[in-house]
Amino acid sequence: MKKFITLSLLLAVGFVNAQAFKGKGDVKFDVGTNIQNGGSGIGISSDFGLGENMSYGFVASYLLSASSDDLGNKPEFGDRIDAKFRFNANLGNVFQLDKKMDIYPGLDLGLRNFGAHLGFRYFFTEGFGIFTEAGIPIASYKTNPIGFDKLNNQFVFNIGASFNL
């Protein structure tokens, strides 16, 4: 029930009130919730424009609710947190989408793995919109992640609010 309320609140905030990627010097700031097998949490990301269709950024996430292991142990702080550096190709204008929309595939290098993501942003005003993003690990730093190592080495889905600063 908590997950449903959290997701509903984020969607409600997102629909209350943003221009998509503009190019060099553009800064995007996303805040949202991530949903994955064994836990859900919050995430924050920031992207900085490099050129007309490229950006780099940073992502940090923390699992608020995470499942216990078979022995009843709860994950500790270090098991719940992840941080990544990312690179995006912003393709909204390549696909000739409306200026308010952006599609951005990319790669990320994090504390737990090397991965890829695909995201979509829609801006309602010049500075506010919503985003959704899915990410997968391509290569985990541990050859066979077990226990809580699996928490940040799996498919993840993010949804939330996006701000153009």
TrEMBL record:
Keywords: Signal. Residues 1-18 form the signal peptide. The keyword Signal applies. InterPro entries: DUF6646 (IPR046588). It comes from the Bacteria. Pfam families: DUF6646. The keyword Signal applies. This is Outer membrane protein beta-barrel domain-containing protein. It comes from Flavobacterium xinjiangense.
